[in-house]
């Protein structure tokens, strides 16, 4: 497996981040005889057990030659692409030699329950034989056989691949090999400590904001907390702080509408009506997002100026788009403001200590999953570091230039000789 497959692995890492499904794991498939033409675009799609079973049957010409399936307890694209993976010196160095010599090598970043695909192939007439790594290799009586070799360690599996292929390629020159995992390393904990070093352990989910004053759980997959909500009305810039609200939700066809109703205020910034509606939508590519937000607001400012906003569509500099199975956390989420309002007639809404998750299973209620932070890559600290570095490099460059521009004397005065005289051009 050369540079092309390594590039597929890196591209697959990006594609695989969109799914994050527990039962999904990558599969590497190689054949000693090319059957048809591989389709890169289709390989990067998510394969169901039935789709993958049909593909394996096609690659074996409906059972004309056997399949050797090397099954690991867990496997992820990170195991294949990073240190200790295919393309590195270990542990898949021997597997790479085999795939390099193969007629065709395909990478499938996301296959749902590859083990179930084998069960479907068994129903199609394939004979399934299972052994553990290191066992005596059985004789394959018929070509339509799937030999499953189970192993927990990625390192040991590399040796097993070489041992098995060295034996069976003598009898079956058109062999099909497959490396797959029963589950994804990224999404589940390892079953034993020996394989823990090869796992991508999930971080412990953080508790809700310790100083949160509002907590809402609709028992249908939505969980939200915030410390307070700051409402600012322009042009007077009067601000009202809300610590709580009355919440309700409406669920329909993968969409949840969260309604927040804030209590009226009779002091300072007088608010007679303040309602906020957030529409959350579950996407088809492994993400959920805030589709839109609207607000209804009316009252008077500190200077008795009346204002009235009816179902204003809001926009924000922060986009709420979150991978499935993650929550969204933002120390300050906002500023939500009307789309078509001028500075002298508008308002802003800021959530502080804000965290929300949606479309979660009932078992995750009252606790947040791992948080997807709203902070971008270039935080204020990073910008300060970049600016200071540029300043230091500028000073260093100027100093080096000045040192290199220094000219030494090329003539010296002799006390015993005639004094040196310099002309105007010297």
Based on helices, strands and strand pairing, what is the structural class?
Answer: alpha+beta
| Fraction of residues in β-strands | 25-35%
Spatial extent as radius of gyration: 32 Å
User: Helical percent range?
Assistant: 10-25%
Largest sheet: 13 strands, mixed
Q: How many discrete domains?
A: 2
What is the straight-line distance between the termini? 70 Å
- Count of DSSP-assigned helices: 8
The average pLDDT is 78
Report the principal-axis shape.
Answer: flat
* Low-pLDDT segments, ≥5 res: 8-22, 38-42, 82-89, 188-208
Order of helices and strands: HEHHEHHEHEEHEEEEEEEEEEEEEEH
Question: What's the β-strand tally?
Answer: 19
Membrane topology: Single-pass membrane protein
Domain V-type proton ATPase subunit S1/VOA1 transmembrane: 376-414
Protein name: V-type proton ATPase subunit S1
Domain V-type proton ATPase subunit S1 luminal: 252-359
């Amino acid at each position: 497996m050369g540079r092309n497959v390594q590039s597929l692995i890196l591209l697959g890492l990006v594609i695989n981040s969109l799914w994050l499904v527990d039962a999904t794991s990558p599969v590497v498939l190689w054949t000693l005889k090319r059957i048809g033409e591989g389709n890169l675009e289709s390989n990067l799609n998510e394969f169901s057990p039935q789709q993958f079973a049909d593909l394996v049957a096609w690659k074996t010409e409906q059972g004309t030659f056997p399949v050797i399936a090397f099954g690991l307890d867990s496997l992820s694209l990170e195991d294949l692409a990073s240190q200790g993976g295919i393309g590195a010196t270990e542990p898949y160095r021997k597997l790479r030699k085999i795939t390099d010599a193969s007629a065709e090598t395909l990478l499938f970043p996301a296959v749902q329950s590859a083990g179930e695909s084998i069960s479907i192939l068994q129903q199609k007439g394939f004979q399934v034989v299972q052994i553990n790594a290191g066992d005596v290799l059985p004789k394959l009586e018929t070509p339509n056989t799937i030999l499953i070799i189970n192993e927990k360690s990625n390192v040991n599996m590399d040796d097993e691949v070489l041992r098995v292929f060295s034996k069976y390629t003598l009898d079956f020159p058109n062999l099909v090999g497959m490396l797959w995992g029963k589950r994804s390393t990224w999404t589940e904990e390892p079953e034993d400590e020996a394989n823990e070093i090869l796992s991508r352990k999930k971080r412990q989910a953080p508790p809700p904001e310790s100083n949160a004053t509002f907590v809402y759980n609709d028992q249908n997959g939505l969980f939200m907390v915030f410390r307070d909500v700051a409402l600012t009305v322009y042009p007077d810039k009067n601000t009202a702080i809300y610590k709580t609200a009355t919440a309700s939700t409406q669920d329909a066809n993968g969409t949840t509408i969260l309604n927040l109703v804030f209590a009226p205020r009779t002091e300072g910034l007088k608010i007679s009506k303040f309602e906020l509606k957030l529409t959350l939508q579950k996407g088809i590519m492994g993400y959920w997002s805030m589709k839109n937000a609207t607000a209804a607001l009316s009252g008077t400012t500190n200077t008795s100026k009346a204002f009235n906003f009816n179902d204003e569509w809001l926009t924000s500099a922060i986009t709420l788009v979150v991978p499935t199975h993650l929550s969204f956390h933002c120390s300050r989420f906002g500023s939500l403001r009307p789309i078509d309002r001028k500075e002298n007639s508008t308002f802003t809404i800021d959530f502080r200590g804000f965290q929300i998750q949606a479309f979660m299973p009932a078992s995750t209620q009252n606790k947040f999953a791992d948080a997807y932070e709203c902070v971008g890559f270039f935080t204020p600290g990073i910008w300060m570091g970049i600016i200071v570095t540029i300043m230091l490099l500028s000073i260093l460059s100027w100093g080096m230039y000045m040192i290199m521009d220094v000219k030494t004397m090329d003539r010296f005065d002799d006390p015993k000789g005639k004094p040196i005289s310099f002309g105007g051009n010297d």
